[in-house]
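Minutes, project check-in

Agenda point 3 was the complex the collaborators sent over. CS summarized: four entities, 454 residues total, and the question is how they sit relative to each other. Sequences were read into the notes so everyone works from the same version.
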Amino acid sequence: MTAGAASPRERYRSQVRAEIKARAWEQIASAGATGLSLNAIAKELGMSGPALYRYFGGRDELITELIRDAYRSLADTFRAAADSGGGLPGLAHALRRWALADPQRYFLVYGTPVPGYHAPDDITAIAQEIMAALLDVCVAADADTHGPDTHGAADTHGPDTFDAHLADHRQWAGGHPAPPAALHRALLCWTRLHGHLSLELAGHFTGMGFDPELLFAAEVDELAGGH
Amino acid sequence: MTAGAASPRERYRSQVRAEIKARAWEQIASAGATGLSLNAIAKELGMSGPALYRYFGGRDELITELIRDAYRSLADTFRAAADSGGGLPGLAHALRRWALADPQRYFLVYGTPVPGYHAPDDITAIAQEIMAALLDVCVAADADTHGPDTHGAADTHGPDTFDAHLADHRQWAGGHPAPPAALHRALLCWTRLHGHLSLELAGHFTGMGFDPELLFAAEVDELAGGH
DNA sequence: TGTACATCAGTGAACGCGCGTTCACTGATGTAC
DNA sequence: TGTACATCAGTGAACGCGCGTTCACTGATGTAC
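CS then shared the predicted structure for the full assembly.
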């Protein structure tokens, strides 16, 4: 049976599931992932605790699905940004917009790991999609940069030794044909943008006086040029 | 009365306090800050729950003191590294060693914020100490760099506009006489090193294939040269 | 169109758990005369 | 050196809470003949 016509019961079912997840996101936004409570969600929905077990196997299954949705949303955002021609700056600012839209969702993906939690395989597959989009953009950026001017500050320590290491350790790229320099640039984008965003979202910049957006833009400028 | 001679009772008291905190750190290391339980600590110490209230006003007070200790430890590490002449690379690798020694301690300082928690003033003062040590090192690094060669890739977008912004928004430096370029470099050190370390400690690099230490070293190389 | 049955959403009571915290109390350790 | 008292560490019982989860059950909604 195809997914075209859904029975009324199926429609209702997925509608309630969606509402449960919506309330769950509200709770996570206000109290973090550890503060998520099935009973509290049920109360907000006007139904009583055990009813939720009609829709989710339990708390862990609900959290896993929220995490999967977060990864999916980020992967879609990255794919769209990579394909829209905005280059690395476009991707970076799309990431920042995505992060600011829901900080706790960002932390669910890249934040402090939940003690005993281990992500299922399909989520790590989505993580690879995210990396693939980033690599696409980095390959294009390298093509632009290597033309006119040199590779910037990289020559302060001779030929790039980490690039050589990456040439032999590229399993994480999942078969992506990016050259080592692009792999390196992708890793730098990841760590640097995450560094800025996680501090900004955690509120570590508040009260410091400068404008986080300008710091972010400056970092993106450097990433887009020679790295 | 001076702190020289402590009565036997005082000695015992601070000894038990230390042991409580030691067990607390063990719990945090294995289950994160949210998993810290007074009763569990008491059980591990062979005493029963309410006894801990002789030593700490409650759970929040204990956590606050652990956070303070974490900041204090990092500030001391930074001060020592800044004064030891290792420059920016020395400071960066000292930070990485400190972080790897106890990942959860690092996350207590820079990780996902605890929902309703707000740090008391003396802790933000220690945070300023940390910044001051970083600024000291960045000022020295700028002096070294600006001599021989140019400021690297920064000229890809003309005169640095963010430096100009920083010249007018330097409250966070707390009166430190660092020039804008050093302020900028300090912020980049902070965000970039944190970006790498938080991903590494959270386990996001595991299974990717490359050596995190080499990526870190490459990033430090770039930070130590023109930024 | 109407009847018989299956499906399934939701309820309410209950279980067991661990949590932070309070309170009145016991006993040992220190101090003052 | 010995006695009287204060200090304080630690106990055990209890309170109230919210959690995830199970179970038997009710009632409505859909399906098959």
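Noted in discussion: Chain B has a mean pLDDT of 91.
Follow-up: revisit at the next meeting once the mutant set is ready.
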